[in-house]
Specification:
Helix content: 40-55%
Structural class: mainly alpha
Shape: globular
Strand order of the largest sheet: 1-2
Number of strands: 2
Number of domains: 2
Length: 112
């Protein structure tokens, strides 16, 4: 009798897990924010809730967002030296243009 109860509970937990997993999978974005020239699988994906609305990416605040952090390695941490700040500003400008979003939006997405 105990085995039936345990199996019933286990089956219920498994069914609940599958339902939650299916729901989460349905919420995951179809595309990730990444550089257009990426041809290989991103080695460093980050899933998080969008801190802001980004109309150009069709993302609203609170939606789950996928970001290929490997593409934004040089922008993730604020530069310290003057030369590094200039290089980072140039890189930020280029990447924002490629993604067709504002520089401030991009910084908020990858740093917040």
């Amino acid at each position: 009798m105990q085995r039936i109860v345990r199996f019933g509970f286990g089956a219920m937990v498994l069914a609940t897990h599958l339902t939650v997993s299916t729901t989460l999978a349905q919420q995951l974005p179809q595309q990730c924010v990444q550089l257009p020239q990426r041809t290989k699988v991103c080695p460093n994906l980050l899933y998080k809730r969008a801190p802001i609305d980004v109309p150009a990416l069709n993302v609203t605040t609170g939606e789950i967002l996928c970001i290929c952090m490997a593409d934004f390695q040089s922008l993730r941490i604020k530069a310290q030296s003057d030369l590094a700040k200039v290089e980072q500003m140039v890189e930020l400008s280029h990447v924002a243009v490629k993604l067709n979003i504002g520089e401030d939006e991009l910084i908020q997405l990858i740093r917040n």
